[in-house]
Write a structure and sequence with these properties.
Distance between the termini: 60 Å
CATH topology of one domain: NE0471 N-terminal domain-like
Radius of gyration: 23 Å
Structural class: alpha+beta
Strand content: 15-25%
Oligomer: single chain
CATH architecture of one domain: 2-Layer Sandwich
CATH class of one domain: Alpha Beta
Shape: extended
Helix content: 25-40%
Length: 145
């Protein structure tokens, strides 16, 4: 039996790599979708979250995993957490991330379809080469009726 290696060699990052990662993080902070304001609407039993995109989400409390059993009165202090990627209620000791609110609102089928469309639209050298090869063969085959 051979020995198994556990872990990996960690190589230190160069100053240029660190600066590039910091720049990438700053850009993400600047452009990412965040929660600008949030509150719990007790009358409608929904979380109301206004996003930095200008969109307002209304998410039923019962649709948020593990929130169905929370006493609505405890959600009165619901507020965005800095830097805006989640909301939290101290009284209820519960929170939810912006991506989860969007996923609940949109539904898994729509998100899957949007992801597939985005990945299909992505350009890569491999897709370009495949397209050129298909073009040399006469292009996409005609659909048979």
């Amino acid at each position: 039996m051979g020995s198994k290696r556990i872990g990996a060699t960690v190589r230190p990052l160069s100053d240029a790599q660190i600066e590039a990662l910091q720049k990438q993080a700053r850009e993400h902070q600047r452009t990412a979708t965040k929660i600008r304001t949030a509150r719990f609407d007790r009358e409608r039993d929904v979380v109301v979250a206004e996003l930095t995109t200008g969109v307002t989400l209304l998410v039923p409390r019962g649709a948020i995993p593990r929130w169905g059993g929370i006493d609505p009165a405890k959600l009165a202090d619901l507020a965005p957490q800095k830097p805006g990627f989640s909301v939290w209620s101290k009284a209820a000791d519960a929170g939810v991330r912006v991506d989860d609110l969007i996923a609940i609102t949109a539904g898994p089928t729509l998100l899957r379809d949007l992801g597939a469309r985005a990945l299909g639209a992505a350009k890569s050298p491999r897709k370009a080469a495949s397209s050129r090869a298909n073009g040399q063969k006469g292009g996409r085959p005609r659909k048979s009726a």
